[in-house]
Every structure is written in structure tokens, then in C-alpha cells.
Amino acid sequence: MKSKRFYTVFNPVQKKPSGELQQKGTDTSIFRNVNELAGINSYDKAILVSGDGDFVPLIDSLKEKQKKIEVWSFKISLSKDLKAAVGIANVHYLDDIFDKIIFQHIGRDDKRLHYQKTI
User: Fold this and answer.
1) Hey, is 101 helix, strand or coil?
2) Residue 3 has what pLDDT?
3) What residues pair up with 116 in beta bridges, in sequence order?
């Protein structure tokens, strides 16, 4: 993704005492990084891969900064509020391209497997 000028942040999955896996702070991290990079004009278009309605304030903030925005989500998990905030023309469905995504195992560290997704 680096060659395409993407900015990726990995937020590790943590194990609860019950053994269940969970992510903590992922939405907050995305919100902060996308807004900070927009504030220094590091990109023209934000591509959010999520259907979570919690990102509506982020969309509103990016619109104020006159950034282009795309949302990619599965149809079943796309929030109506997020869809309305970004506009239907800027919504794309992972369901439509899922068969074209290639998952490649690229390594492992102590805590997680790493996969690269290419289309």
C-alpha cells in the first residue's frame, strides 16, 4: 500500500482474561489520524473502510476541510447515518468486489498474523 500512498495504522487486537479477542481505541485512533493529516493537507481523499455510524462526526469534519471522502462497507453493516453523511455517490460496497480481494499471508510477530489485501 505504501507505493499507492496509503497511510495505514495497525491497532493490535488484545486478549481479554476470558480469552475473547477485542480491539480497543481503533475508532478514536482512526478519527485522530485522519483529522490530523487533513489539518496539514496531507491528502485529497479519505477512504474509510467501515460502516460504523460513529464516524459521522469524522465525515462532517472532513467536509468542513473540503476533503473528498469515500466509504467502503458491507451492505449489511453500513449505518444509515453514515450513508447519509457521506452521500450515496461516495458509498461503495465490499460485497461487490469481495471475490476480487486477495488475502496474502505476509508474516507473523508475537501477537498477530499479518495479511495484505490487494484488489
Assistant:
1) coil
2) 47
3) 104
Domain segments of the chain as ranges: 2-118
CA 27 from chain center: how many Å?
Answer: 9
Q: Per-residue DSSP letters for 3-66?
A: GGT-------EEE-TTS-EEE-SHHHHHHHHHHHHHHTT--SEEEEE---GGGHHHHHHHHHTT
CA dihedral 43, 48, 52, 53 (to 10 degrees): 40
Amino acid sitting at position 60: D
Model pTM score = 0.73
Say if domain 2-118 classifies as CATH 3.40.50.1010: yes
68-96 pLDDT, tens digit per residue, is: 999 999 999 999 999 999 999 999 999 99
Is the predicted pLDDT of residue 111 greater than 70, yes or no?
A: no
